[in-house]
C-alpha cells in the first residue's frame, strides 16, 4: 500500500520550520480560502473552521493518498479579536492595549485524509494564554522598530522578538503559539498510520 504524501496547507515559513521537527518528508501548498469570519462567529469555531477549510481546499486537488494539515490562529484580548494592524500607529495602539494583560491564541488544527471519501477531516483546537509584562512606551516602540510586526495579529510575532514582551506563557503545547500544535498533530498523524517516532 502506498504511503500517503504529507502536505502542509500553508506557505508560512514558521509553520514549515515547526513541521520539520517531526522529521517527515512533506510539501507545502498554499490553500485558497476566504478567511473572513462568518456573522456572529466567535474565535474558537472560527479558528477550527478555517483550519478545516485550508486542509480540505488542498486535499480536494490531490491525486492519490495524502494527509493534508491545515492550521489557523485567532488572537483575542478579552472579547476583542486582535487583527493584523497594517501600520505602526495601529500596532502601537494594540500593544498598549495588551500592556500588563493576557491574550489568548486559539489555534485550530485539521488533518484531511484523502484515503477516505469526501475527504475525512479531523479538527481540534489548542488554546495558549500569554501574559504581557508591564511595558513602557519606549519598550513598545523599540520592539515595533526592531520587528515591524504589521502583518501579525495583535502585532505579536511570537516566533520572534515578541517573547521579550511576555511575562508567562500557559499552553499545552508551546508550538501552538507559533501556529502549529505539534504534540496534537503528532497524535493525529499516528492515528492516521504514520510512525512517530
Query: Helix coverage percent of residues?
Result: 25-40%
Strand content: 25-35%
Mean pLDDT, to the nearest integer, reads 94
Radius of gyration: 17 Å
Could you state the order of secondary-structure elements as H and E? EHEHEEHEEHEH
Number of distinct beta strands: 7
Q: Which spans have pLDDT < 50 for at least 5 consecutive residues?
A: none
Query: What class, by secondary structure content?
Result: alpha/beta
Q: How widely separated are the two ends?
A: 20 Å
SS element count, helices: 5
Question: What sort of overall outline do the alpha carbons produce when their principal axes are compared?
Answer: elongated
Main β-sheet description? 7 strands, mixed
Q: What is the secondary structure topology, with strand pairs?
A:
Blueprint: E1 5-8, H1 13-20, E2 27-28, H2 43-59, E3 66-77, E4 80-82, H3 88-98, E5 102-113, E6 120-132, H4 137-147, E7 166-170, H5 182-191
Parallel strand pairs: 1-2, 1-3
Antiparallel strand pairs: 3-4, 3-5, 5-6, 6-7
Helix pairs in contact: 3-4
Textual characterization of the structure:
- This protein has 197 residues and is of the alpha/beta class.
- It has helices spanning 13-20, 43-59, 88-98, 137-147, 182-191, and strands at residues 5-8, 27-28, 66-77, 80-82, 102-113, 120-132, 166-170.
- The longest helix has 17 residues, at 43-59.
- Strands 1, 2, 3, 4, 5, 6 and 7 form a 7-stranded mixed beta sheet that branches.
- 29% of the residues lie in helices and 26% in strands.
Amino acid at each position: 500500500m502506498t504511503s500517503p504524501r504529507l502536505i502542509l496547507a500553508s506557505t508560512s515559513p514558521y509553520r514549515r520550520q515547526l513541521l520539520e521537527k517531526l522529521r517527515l518528508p512533506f510539501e507545502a501548498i498554499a490553500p485558497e480560502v476566504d478567511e473572513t469570519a462568518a456573522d456572529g462567529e466567535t474565535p474558537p469555531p472560527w479558528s477550527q473552521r478555517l483550519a478545516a477549510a485550508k486542509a480540505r481546499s488542498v486535499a480536494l486537488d490531490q491525486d492519490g493518498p495524502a494527509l493534508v494539515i491545515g492550521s489557523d490562529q485567532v488572537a483575542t484580548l478579552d472579547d476583542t479579536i486582535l487583527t493584523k494592524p497594517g501600520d505602526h500607529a495601529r500596532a502601537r495602539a494594540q500593544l498598549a492595549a495588551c500592556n500588563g494583560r493576557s491574550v489568548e491564541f486559539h489555534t485550530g488544527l485539521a488533518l484531511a485524509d484523502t484515503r477516505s471519501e469526501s475527504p475525512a477531516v479531523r479538527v481540534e483546537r489548542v488554546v495558549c494564554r500569554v501574559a504581557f509584562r508591564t511595558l513602557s512606551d519606549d519598550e513598545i516602540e523599540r520592539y515595533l522598530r526592531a520587528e515591524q510586526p504589521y502583518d501579525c495579529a495583535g502585532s505579536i510575532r511570537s516566533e520572534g522578538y515578541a517573547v521579550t514582551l511576555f511575562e508567562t506563557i500557559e499552553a499545552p503545547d508551546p508550538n501552538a503559539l507559533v501556529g502549529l500544535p505539534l504534540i496534537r498533530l503528532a497524535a493525529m498523524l499516528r492515528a492516521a498510520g504514520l510512525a512517530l517516532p
